[in-house]
Amino acid sequence: MTINMVRDVIVDAFTYTLRMHGIVFLALSAKTIKYILTGYKSSSREVLHKIAIALLLNKLKICTEKSKGVLAGFYKGIYILYPAKDMYCSDATIVRSDEYCSQDLSIKLLASFMDIVSKIPVFMIDLSLWELHHEKEKLKLLKQIVVSINVIRRWLTDYHLVFVSAPSETLARLRKHIHFLCPWYMDSSPYSFIDRSRTLMLDPYAEEILSAEDVFRFNYFVIGGIVDRLYSRPYATYMIYRLHSLDVERKAIKLKGSSIGVPNEINKVIDFILRIRLGDKQMEEAIIDCMGVDDKISRIVYELKKVYRNSRDIEYSDIVEYMKLYRLPERYLKKILAKIRKG
């Protein structure tokens, strides 16, 4: 999925690091091109972003080898070269981790990169209540965590996602699905070295409502690792809050004062925050961006019933207008009508 970012802090730090080390022309090996350009046509920024993340994950290396190449892209002072004869000559070459590299610059460059890249925001997923979940819920939770790691990589690095009070069972099961570098704590110690005045717990049942200003004011966002598909757990996040005596602000993500249709999956909550903070989206737009089809249908039905007390008064044109507002294709019209009739 391609996201139009206003601020790509990863690429900003990575390109600065390359230039600082005298690398302006960066060549990609043939194998690297196949890895980087899988699935979609990438912009120069996206290519550099993916390279930076892959270097962190040790899937790619950056070597001193100079390669010939054709100019394929340019971003923030870095020229990207694809293999070709008698064209530009690179200052360094990106290769896959299994390719030969006479002198690997990766460790040196990554050390500089990590010094430069912003350390905030940080998302803290608290898994204190893992054992309360049914096995089916655990599978759902694991899936949300895997997707959350992939979401964070579209905006930041693995180090911006921290797991707190995470059982060894969760770690072992997660490693079967994805390789990751996210800090992992089996206790609540991370809470002791963060600035609690800049920490916010996102709780769907909190009385206070999150504002756009809050997204920029706080640097640490605590999210409960909770799934309640089989059993309702309305105050589970508050239980985590009390368990660790967090003493931080708690706020709920709502749309026009209501949580109906507002996504509560961990990965979507993280994506929502980052779309505002780094993607320059407004609150309402970011919520709609993160909504799934079912979320949108629930929200549209809620909005219509709020305006029309009697469902018989709802006009076809009104439904279409709300579908446009929530960017829902017309093929879902029958589902909305069925839900309205069902009451």
The end-to-end distance, rounded to whole angstroms, is 35 Å
Mean pLDDT: 93
What is CATH's topology name of the largest domain?
Answer: Alpha/beta knot
**Poorly predicted sequence stretches spanning 5 or more consecutive residues:** none
Number of strands: 11
Indicate the overall shape.
globular
Order of helices and strands: HEHHEEEEEHEHEHEHEHEHHHHH
How are the strands of the largest sheet arranged?
Answer: 2-6-1-4-3-5
Total of domains: 3
Largest sheet geometry: 6 strands, mixed
Which bin fits the share of residues in helices? 40-55%
* Count of separate DSSP helical elements: 13
Could you explain the architecture of this structure?
The structure is a single chain. The chain has 343 residues and is α/β, with parallel strands linked by helices. It has three domains: 9-116, no CATH class; 122-284, 3-Layer(aba) Sandwich (Alpha/beta knot); 293-342. The protein has 13 helices and eleven strands. Helix 1 (9-20) crosses helix 3 (44-56).
